[in-house]
Design brief:
The protein is of the alpha/beta class. It contains 9 helices and 8 strands. β5 and β6 form a beta hairpin. The structure holds adenosine-5'-diphosphate and adenosine monophosphate. Adenosine monophosphate binds next to α2 and α3.
């Protein structure tokens, strides 16, 4: 049976950072909806051009577009063993669609680690974030600086600041999260799947806590 893990948490909680660490440990591909939209935007596909309108404002891309994109991605061969989902689902409609999609693959959501971080920390994390052009490796100018400024430690590619990591857009993304994504916490808690982890700790400790909580529950 495939294993599906959904990483939950506000923008800036550390989902991408942790997914890069734990997908190797769990041997599951890291599927980030935001990364897929950014890749499409870079390649100027129709999907990327539509998504850009929403992303630059910090709004969510409409559910139908996002759901069908994730369905396509999860249907690919590398997701046969399951996947580690980061940034999807983000609305109750997406969560319901995910349940249906996974049933199609004879699977289900097995665990939902929730990286908990207080709101006041998020703006500083996101406005200081640096992302690598080649693979999306994540750094922070104070909390997780690269060895050489502006250069990715892992592949030597250039680091850039995302267009939606400006203070104004970040504030809207956090607002959108509270309005549209927070209900999922209760949805997965009631399903007995939620695993709360303290995301204020150092990156390595958050990773260790996540792996411990996930391994115990799957
Ligand atoms: P998300 O994917 O949830 O939006 P990221 O993983 O991109 O969040 O992390 C946001 C920023 O916070 C990045 O710059 C990252 O380096 C930094 N960061 C992630 N985890 C921690 C942590 N535990 N402590 C301090 N900074 C962190
Ligand atoms: P992220 O990389 O997760 O921070 O996402 C960046 C942006 O991509 C978001 O602000 C949204 O505009 C869009 N996005 C990513 N995932 C989703 C999703 N599940 N539903 C709708 N929009 C999304």
């Amino acid at each position: 049976m495939p294993i599906y893990i959904v990483l939950l948490g506000p923008p800036g909680a550390g989902k991408g950072t942790q997914a890069q660490i734990i997908s190797k440990e769990l041997n599951l591909p890291h599927i980030s909806s935001g990364d897929i939209f950014r890749e499409n935007l870079k390649n100027q596909t129709e999907l990327g051009i539509i998504a850009e309108r929403y992303m630059t404002r910090g709004e969510l891309v409409p559910d139908d577009i996002t759901i069908s994109m994730i369905h396509d991605r999860l249907s690919r061969e590398d997701c046969k063993p399951g996947s580690l989902l980061d940034g999807f689902p983000r609305t109750p409609a997406q969560a319901a669609a995910l349940d249906n999609t996974l049933a199609e693959f004879r699977g289900k959501v097995n665990a939902v680690p929730y990286i908990k971080v207080p709101q006041e920390v998020l703006i500083e994390r996101l406005t200081g974030r640096w992302t690598c052009r080649a693979e999306g490796h994540i750094f922070h100018d104070r909390f997780n600086p690269p060895r050489q400024k502006g250069v990715c430690d892992y592949d030597g590619s250039q680091l850039y600041q995302r267009d939606d990591d400006t203070e104004e857009t970040v504030k809207n993304r956090i607002h959108v999260y509270f309005k549209q994504t927070m209900p999922l916490i209760d949805y997965y808690r009631q399903a007995g799947l939620l695993l709360e982890v303290d995301g204020r700790q150092p990156i390595e400790k958050v990773g260790a806590d996540l792996i411990y909580a996930i391994s115990k529950s799957i």
